[in-house]
Design brief:
Chains A, B: Residues 5-58 form the HTH lacI-type domain. The structure is a homodimer of 362-residue chains. Chain A is an alpha/beta fold. Among the domains of chain A are: 1-48, 434 Repressor (Amino-terminal Domain) (Orthogonal Bundle), CATH 1.10.260.40; 199-323, Rossmann fold (3-Layer(aba) Sandwich), CATH 3.40.50. Chain A is built from 13 helices and twelve strands. In chain A, the strands form two sheets. In chain A, strands 2-1-3-4-5-11 form a six-stranded parallel sheet, with helices on both faces. A six-stranded mixed sheet of chain A has the order 7-6-8-9-10-12, sandwiched between helices. In chain A, β4, α8 and β5 form a beta-alpha-beta unit. The termini of chain A are far apart. Chains A and B meet through α4, α5, β2, α6 and α12 of A and α4, α5, β2, α6 and α12 of B. The structure holds a DNA duplex (16 and 16 nucleotides).
DNA sequence: TTGAAAGCGCTAACAG
DNA sequence: CTGTTAGCGCTTTCAA
């Protein structure tokens, strides 16, 4: 970087002290004439206060971190757009990292953020509580989006008012580190606010819809981080759950395809599948095609995530839409507001968008 | 952020001077015993050198900036993944911004990067040379990816190798706007290296393919930044170009749809369209369907960008694939290497992937 | 091989 | 209202 004008240069050129310049530029008190002169000189010199100096002085970066598993997944693209939009409107730089769904890379990136003194981060976590402990311990404000680390799951939910499942969810997640009897020694659950979609309601609605169409053998095809959705699925189909119908890929498109294909082949009796995310939905469509299964004639499909191409698919995909962009935006708001008041988790509603990929059981 | 251990803490605890700690940690010389002790203490204190202090001292952030128009566009997602991957392997943090294709937002983000002392940036530019002038003037190392700002013209390139059409392309593109006689006063052309796909060859191949299928009225559906592709298209179809068949959207999905729909309606005689990017391809498919045009029976379609869903489309889309991830990776390499030696632009090959969206002229 | 000391650009006391 | 000063955490001469 070439040499830029510093506050000292401005001060000299304006014939004032550096403190005055600092004050003027950050809206402190100053006489009109001084302010004017300083401003003029600053503009003339094209002076831009260095965030480096300021941050060092204030011992914080002021920026945000954003960690997602894969920017190639449209949903995370939407979510990131939300975060970026919110951050920009607050003038906060955001340091971004893609973890590839790998806890180790995630840990590495967390370390990098720590080094940068980035003290607020929004993440779609891939690692578990242990991965995130260093961040929390270091005093980072973290907000999870889209999902929670596996260990951050709190204990069982006793069932209740069917109309209030979102609230239920809130209770569930936030709920606390400290429910009665968690051994001290166990990995301390993280107490981190999160912005999530109402997976439970979303899945339930989808399963009911498929049930209404006559489907009885419904499968769930998930990826990393889809445990809550899988749990919701199990709950929605009710006991006894045929565990063979709940399968997981490991995150890559290939593994998603393998999982889908394996599922279709090992259980030709299934008549419907719920894909836990758009990459899995993609895989399901591909695998079905490859095996000459017609959608929805031979198999019905509903996919989590509404992405533009869902509509272009043949047939257009019925989806559980979650507001990716909003989720990102909200998460960013939470992380920015934190400090003011302890942030509460947020659960956003999903919507079942019925297109053409589900039909009556054959 | 809670208080972290500083270099001073480590120095004290190890009973050495701060300079020694600094040396040890950055691989300088030190006696084995000292080194060991310092390392032990550092580990024990969980010491992490603060990038803030280091950067201030060295007057640079060491990080990279990455500016793209829209993370929701899968191609930019791919490109970003490439950049992030390369940056991570070099331990560089990347500050990301989404411009929405808006030059003003882009300028704002550039200002933000300047403030952060981020002195190296990779961008898919939305603004023109004027937008980027401040960055260059400030001494930033910038590398463009995927496209060039409209005004970004460059110096002549001599020397070529007949086998290297890529070079040819560089000439072509870079060439135009201002050959020899550019008045000094005119907006100084940017001299910025770039990583581009071989649009010219890509488009030419596609057009030839369509020609071979019997198509004569071929349209080009572009978006912002697709001027080079449009130019290549004009060149490929040859004079006289029917300018009504070259239409542009403004970047949003809606406007892309409007452009596509308008095109189909105003020129029912066209039999094929080349979409300049995946968002435009998406729009074309949608618009065609809405107008009851069958692909490829009524209209053939080839889309720039290979994205996972192209294969899921009905019919699967024939595409001009460009290596988005590689482009990002290469761009990052360029920006990192710069300083060592002046970086040269890179043109990566495209590939026509024939699937099912093109058929003989009806 | 090591330590002391001088800042990098900025803000926040504290005086004047 | 304004200037002086003391660092923030680190790297880097420069001596010892």
């Amino acid at each position: 970087m070439e040499k830029r004008a510093t506050i000292k240069d401005v001060a000299e050129a304006a014939g004032v002290g550096v403190a005055t310049v600092s004050r003027v530029l950050s809206g402190g008190s100053a006489s009109a004439s001084t302010r004017e002169r300083v401003l003029a000189v600053a503009a003339q010199l094209d002076y831009r206060p260095s965030a480096l100096g300021r941050n060092l002085r204030q011992r914080r970066t002021g920026g945000l971190g954003l960690l997602v598993p894969d920017l190639t997944d449209t949903f995370y693209g939407q979510l990131s757009e939300g975060v970026l939009a919110c951050a920009r409107s607050s003038g906060e730089p955001v340091v971004m990292g893609s973890t590839g769904g790998d806890p180790e890379q995630e840990a590495e990136l967390i370390g990098m953020l720590l080094e940068q003194s980035v003290d607020r981060v929004i993440a779609v976590p891939s690692g578990d509580a242990e991965t995130w402990a260093p961040a929390v311990r270091a005093g980072m404000t973290v907000v999870f989006a889209d999902r929670l680390p596996p260990e951050a799951v709190r204990e069982e939910e006793h069932d209740r008012d069917p109309a209030e499942h979102a609230l239920d969810d809130l209770l569930l997640l936030d709920g606390l580190a400290a429910r009665p009897r968690v051994p001290e020694s166990a990995a301390r659950p993280l107490d981190v606010p999160a912005v999530l979609a109402d997976d439970r309601a979303g899945i339930r609605t989808a399963v009911r819809y498929l049930r209404g169409l006559g489907h009885r053998r419904i499968a769930f095809l998930g990826g990393p981080g889809h445990d809550r959705r899988a749990a919701a699925f199990r709950e929605a189909v009710g006991a006894p759950v045929d565990e063979e119908l709940v399968v997981f890929g490991t995150g890559s498109r290939d593994s998603a395809y393998a999982a889908a294909s394996g599922l279709f082949q090992s259980r030709p009796d299934l008549s419907a599948v719920v894909a836990g995310g758009n990459v899995l939905g993609e895989a399901a469509v591909l695998a079905a095609r490859e095996l000459d299964l017609r959608v929805p004639k031979d198999v019905s499909l509903v996919m989590y995530d509404d992405v533009p191409w869902a509509e272009l698919c043949a047939p257009p995909l019925t989806v559980i839409a979650q507001p990716g962009r909003d989720m990102g935006y909200r998460a960013c708001e939470l992380v920015l507001r934190e400090g003011t008041r302890r942030a509460r988790s947020v659960v956003l509603p999903t919507e079942l968008i019925i297109r053409g990929s589900c039909g009556p059981r054959r």
